[in-house]
Model the fold of this input.
Amino acid sequence: MLLFALTIFLSAFLLFQVQPLIGKIILPWFGGTPAVWTTCMLFFQCLLLAGYAYAHAVMALPARKQGLVHLAVLVAALLAGAPTIFPPEGYKPEGDGVPLLQILLVLTVSVGLPYFALSTTGSLVQAWFSRLHPSRSPYPLYALSNIGSLLGLLTFPFLVEPRLGSATQASLWFLGFAGFCLLCGSIAVQTTRASARAAAEPTGDVATAEVPAPTWGLRAVWVALGACASIMLLAMTNQMAIDVASVPFLWVIPLALYLMSFILCFSSEKWYPRWLFYPLFVGATAGVVGLMLAGADAGIEQQALVYCAAIFIYAMVCHGELYRLRPHPRHLTAFYLALSVGGALGGVFVGAIAPLVFSAYYELHIGLVATSLLVLHAFRRDQRLELRGRGVAAVVLAGAAAVAYTLWRVQSDSPDSFRFIAPLAGALLCMLLFGFLWSLRVPTGPSDPVLTDSPSGPRWIDAGARINHGRARLAWLLPIAAIVLLAVNLVIEGRYRTSEALTIERGFFGVLRVADRYTHDPLQARRILFHGAINHGFQYRDRERQMWHNSYFAEESGIGTALTRHPKRLAGEPLKIGLLGLGSGTLLTYGRPGDSIRIYEIDPEVEPLSRQYFTYFERTEATTEVVLGDGRLSLEREPDQAYDVLILDAFSSDAIPMHLLTREAFETYFRHLKPDGILAANMSNRHVDIRPVLKQLAQHFAWEFVWIENYSDDPRGVYAADWGLLSNNRAFLDDPLVKTRQGDTSGVSTDLRMWTDDYSNLFAVLKWVQGG
Done:
């Protein structure tokens, strides 16, 4: 037993330790976008599916061949991964090509075979254990594997990442994988030998032959439950990463909660009481839809709390229903294969299909409705709802009263908002009433048979009480009505987000939307480019105002100061400007005759939108050139550009592309700047305070750090903005206007570990952590 437990634990630990490890390594190669992690999850889930399919196929082989085949797989994986899983530098993207396919290629080359070998372990080793020890349940081993997975995830951001560089991590991981191969190889040899002895004992085969195979309908439910859990995990993780940053700890927490649900649900049914998780499911649905309606107005604390809680609740419901529908251990590999198929389908849907089919982030909408439908179907299959008692009835009625009161207040205080919340409130009321009716159920005789836990095989019992026949039809109509109302609410929310859009483009790097606002006022009418929910620049529709310096780029802002008070500009000489991140193109308003502006833009959809819907390219007096690809990688490949000003404005939605703020990145920037040049970084962000990072980097490279904050001015379309300027140009630094505008940075602490390509700690600079 110890050998089996240790092997499964180590395989699971390595399986989930490598996910954030390899994801962080390749994140800077593809612009730091959240889609990198989604694509990684797609890859891992598909390989996990391949591993379960392999285990299912191997178990169909003669017993003596199973161990030999798996030994060959382990040897091949060991040779493929040696001596490190660090991806070769030659696979960095060149600026063209399909990012999704490039990421999948890098992952296949670096960790493909080792990850596949690990993914086969859970179901295969448990099946071997069940064969060698038929009187013992293998499901606790599955819970143990999820504990290993959870520890692998949690130790990475808190123990491994802060202390070790990525290259060292990759080498140490391979050593751990080699140890796993020895353990798993020992089990394969032991199983091969034991199978020869077991072949002469037909008793076990006769007993297991009597176990009925799961129906295809039940298998479909397994797949669907796994898919819905995967969709909700990826869709909500993606939403959080879009508005904060794509970093390991924001990947790890949701995935750890997802794994925790496996640990609890597959340990015992007692950890998934429907009387508790049904109301939580209703509340989670309300919370997620509420966040979707709030959009960018929701703070990071609200998003993290609600989305993480919802991920855990949805995962508990899906995995709890899965465990209630588990088969006899003889069909273990088929069960895990179906679960893996569902996980892979969810990953393919969110990572590959949704970006191609949908113009906006609708996968979360679909996931909410699909999960609700599936939970309803699972309740119909197994009607042990356990929603009995006056206490449950009282709680449900109290929830219904709260929803009704909220609906009344919204109608009274904000009639315009009523159309958004009314369908959601109606859905919640229907779901709560459904629970209330179930709490009043009475015994009516035998119900459909349901499977209970039994390590020696299936045991069918009488579920007993169900909703009495007089209320049965009404009860089952209520959740159907709730799902219809929820779908209506989500459609209203989706149409609201896109109703004003002139165009919507969705690609690997996110959703871009162009919309006209304030059209009732000819002077304030403006056209805005949105990335996700965040404004990435606008242009006034009035021709006389079209070349105004607006939004985050006002003349009194940090970047306005750099471009208007540069000594060469004051002397009437042209400037050579580098710009990372195009947006709508607002910064082109600073172009003067003789200036050259070289723009680095990673998203191929941005430049066509800027040229088609805005006139900045058409009206700027500077010569412009657009380089497609990640700005940092492009600069690394280029010869020195000798920029007078280099501007970092490459935010993804409201997230920080952290690979642009490392020591190695700044070495590249300073190589491209003239000695008297200015490096300007847009620090405007609702969640993160980048000043400590920039100040520390300025001190490290012996450059002066200037922080300039400006305030909003609505009549001029100016937004509050924070800019950090790094320069050794004494004439610029001593300019009286620059000194007047700059803020006091003496209180900005640099007592943090320097960000490098091997290390970065977003948590330390979150504003709510700092108390800001």
